[in-house]
Design a protein that fits this description.
Helix content: 40-55%
Strand content: 15-25%
Largest sheet: 5 strands, antiparallel
Distance between the termini: 61 Å
Order of helices and strands: EHEEEEHHHH
Structural class: alpha+beta
Mean pLDDT: 78
Length: 152
């Protein structure tokens, strides 16, 4: 199975990195029908994600993100484009957070405020119904014959 490994350094600290990870998890749940589980720790968190053909984890630390994913056979052919999409989404979230950190520093905001903020309750996203066309019953011989009779 092809692997995707992405490492991104940052200077956000763990509380802000957690917020980025939660945003990322919500995006992949909504956009790619992933099921995400967040496991919080003292020095780092782990976001485990899965769906048919993909499973992996995002390690969230105070100074970096580390994403590892395994793609199944069918998605393996698209590994480069999948990796590029993940990088684009994660980089956009990091850039937005870094810009926000710069603005907060200019205003003299308390950087420790994020540490005391209540954490939102996290529920796994409901699994969507399979996206397949409805199946019709096979035609029986009398039905097939009735359709093929010429009309007078």
């Amino acid at each position: 199975m092809p692997d995707i490994n992405i490492h991104r350094d940052h200077s956000l600290g763990l509380p802000r990195a957690r917020k980025i990870a939660w945003q990322w998890a919500e995006e992949v749940e909504n956009k790619f029908d992933m099921e995400c589980t967040v496991i919080e720790g003292e020095t780092s968190d782990t976001v485990e994600f899965t769906r048919s053909g993909v499973n992996g984890r995002l390690i969230v630390a105070g100074d970096h993100f580390e994403l590892d994913a395994k793609l199944g056979f069918l998605l393996g052919a698209f590994s480069k484009s999948i990796e590029a999409e993940i990088c684009k989404n994660l980089d956009a979230l990091l850039a937005k957070a870094e810009r926000g950190a710069d603005k907060g520093a200019d205003k003299g905001d308390d950087k420790g405020a994020d540490e005391t903020a209540p954490k939102p309750a996290r529920k796994p996203a409901p699994k969507p119904a399979p996206k397949t066309a409805p199946r019709t019953a096979p035609k029986t011989a009398p039905q097939a014959a009735a359709k093929s009779k010429p009309k007078d």
